Amino acid sequence: MPEEIQIADKVGSVSANRYAEIVAELRKLVETASRIQFTIGDHALEVEPMRESGGQERGEELFTVKDSLFRLAEDIGVSYSTVKETRWTASRWPKDRRVSGVSFTVHKILASVADEEERFAAVLTPPDGKSRWTPDDAKRRTGRQVENPVTPQEKVSAIHTLARDEEVAATVTSDLLRRPTVVAQVKQEDKVRVVEELTRDETVAAKVTTGLLRRPDVAFRAMSDDTARHQVNHAQVERGRQAREHFDQTNPVAPAIRSIDRSVEFLDLVTACHAFVAAAGRVVPGMRDRQLGDDERTVVHENVARVRATLDWIETAVDTGKVDVDGELARLLQGD
User: Fold this and answer.
1) How many CB atoms are located within 10 Å of the residue 326 CB?
2) Is the separation of the CB atoms in 87 and 44 below 8 Å?
3) Of 96-110, 189-203, 248-262, 295-309, which one has max mean pLDDT?
């Protein structure tokens, strides 16, 4: 038990008391460093005052400004970016508005608050429940990404930032999609969008669709959609047509098959005629002593005319081999 208490009272490899001493000592150094950085910024402003009001400077990269700041940076042994950064931060914080105990880093982050009064009030008001500003708290205040994400949204933002590289994003997405519990939490409409994006490639789409249609419930629901059902039927007809064309063009037995096909067509035609005659022979006697109304007779006469036209068409096709349909016959066959 005593050992557990001792471990609990330690921060890293030092005791809680020693950690507090280190923090106090480093805060003094940070405050000194902040004064130094502000001093560099103030002198940089003296060398090159900001050219626009409000601390925003459109001509920042003009040669005259950059040249002067670059020379100052080299003469004092720091980077140009440091001089440029401290100069801009100093311009956003007049000396009487800088807060002792708040690091230069926090001042720099809060410097992006556009409204002066809001900015000056913000630095004096740490987040609820905290006695001092931290860089991450300042980033939250200004809408920037934090270094140590805590909330789900912050973690999502961090992931998006890390996944800006397409290769990294692809790997992360693949890994996440393998986690059933993750996929289960995705909204249905978002899942649909993901599948649509992933199946833009025709090969992938065909493979996925084939697999899904092997699932009876999925196939049933898909075929309940008129457009989907029409497309499937069209695809089947088109596939059959293409297969037949390929067979006719490449298979050595195709001529013999075509001869058989003609025989089948002959049999189909004879069967159709026989079926019509048989049906008429069965139906007409049943009309004995029955008088049809005017509308009924009109319908029957129209259909008889269609039958006559069809019989003439059959005779022409049989005698001449021509199966073309003229406009009048097409109109009759369609019932127009």
Assistant:
1) 9
2) yes
3) 96-110
Between 256 and 124, whose confidence is greater?
124
**Domain ranges for the chain:** 2-146, 149-185, 186-251, 264-334
Amino acid at 55: G
pLDDT in tens, 309-333: 888 888 888 888 877 767 666 666 6
C-alpha–C-alpha distance, residues 30 and 106, integer Å: 11
* Distance, CA of 26 to CA of 36 (rounded, Å): 15
For range 134-149, the mean pLDDT: 91
Of the chain, the percentage scoring pLDDT greater than 90 comes to 32
Alpha carbons 82 and 319: distance in angstroms, whole number: 98
Annotate 21-57 with DSSP letters as a single string: HHHHHHHHHHHHHHHHHHHHHHHHHHHS--SSGGG--
Which ranges of the chain does DSSP label H, i.e. alpha helix?
Answer: 2-8, 16-47, 63-76, 80-92, 104-110, 116-123, 135-141, 152-162, 166-177, 180-184, 188-198, 202-213, 216-223, 226-250, 254-283, 294-320, 327-334
- 265-300 b/e with 16+ CB inside 10 Å = b? eeeeeeeeeeeeeeeeeeeeeeeeeeeeeeeeeeee
Distance CA 131, CA 124 (A): 10
Token reading at 332: 């009759």
Q: What's the pTM value of the predicted model, to 2 decimals?
A: 0.52
Confidence of residue 4 (pLDDT cuts 50, 70, 90): very low
Enter the DSSP assignment of 15.
E
CB 199 within 8 A of CB 208: yes
* Residue 264, token pair as written in the block: 């089948």
Q: For residue 39, what are its two tokens?
A: 């001093």
Question: Which are the contacts of 110, defined by CB distance < 8 A and separation ≥ 6?
Answer: 119, 122, 123, 133, 138, 141, 142
